[in-house]
Each structure stands twice: as C-alpha cells, then as structure tokens.
Design goal:
Strand order of the largest sheet: 1-4
Number of domains: 2
CATH topology of the largest domain: Rossmann fold
Shape: flat
CATH class of the largest domain: Alpha Beta
Largest sheet: 2 strands, parallel
Helix content: 25-40%
Number of strands: 4
Number of helices: 4
Order of helices and strands: EHEEEHHH
C-alpha cells in the first residue's frame, strides 16, 4: 500500500487502532522511507507525504502502552483538531452546495440548492 502512494499522499485512517505488531514496521518506514514488499529481498525508497487521522486519544494510548511513543512523535508533526460536524451545523449548507456543484459537474447534470433552503438540522 505504501508503494502505491509513491510521490503522493499516504492517508492512514484510524492510526490509533494500529496494532502493536505493525507499529514498528510503520516506524521503520517513517524513519528510512524504505519498504520491502513480501517476497522481495531488496527494499526500495518511497517518497510520500503521510497524513494520519484518528478518533482516539493517542496520548492516552501511549500512556497505556498501546501505542509507541516514538511512532507518535514521528506522526505528531502538525496536529489539526476538528470538532465533529454535529457541532458545526452552520457549515452544512456550504458543504451541501459544494458537493452538489462538484458532483453535478462531474456527472454533467444541472442541479443546485437554493441558499434560502430551510435546513432541518
């Protein structure tokens, strides 16, 4: 999977759920930028941007010994904390308009939402 992201972005979703058996392997990749696919003997370099996301409190997982502190250090370069959308309801109309416009253009359809639409949220 890492090799497929070469020269792009590798998105690691729910990184807090990564098992202790896989964490050293990911850490090794983050430190060396090398991967060695199963069945291969020679590792190769992979240049990727890594973005990791989780709903878990990773600091607490580190304290509990369920997440490696050195891996957390490597991943915790720039942290963005977003409130759930249910706490940002005022953003929903703009998101609806954006996605309607995007997918209408993608599927060559004419559609829109009126800015005066009453949102039951």
């Amino acid at each position: 999977m890492i090799g497929a992201a070469r020269d792009g972005t590798l998105f690691l979703d729910e990184i807090g759920e990564l098992g202790l058996d896989m964490q050293p392997k990911l850490l090794r990749f983050l430190e060396s930028n090398e991967v060695c696919p199963i069945g291969e003997v020679t590792p190769f370099q992979v240049d990727v941007r890594v973005v990791a996301a989780t709903n878990s409190n990773v600091e607490q997982l580190v304290e509990e010994g369920r997440f490696r502190s050195d891996l957390f250090y490597r991943l915790n370069i720039l942290r963005l904390t977003l409130k759930p959308l249910r706490e940002r309801r005022d953003e929903i109309p703009a998101l609806v308009q954006f996605f309607l416009t995007h997918f209408a253009a993608e599927h060559k359809k004419a559609t829109s939402a009126s800015p005066k639409t009453r949102w039951n949220i």
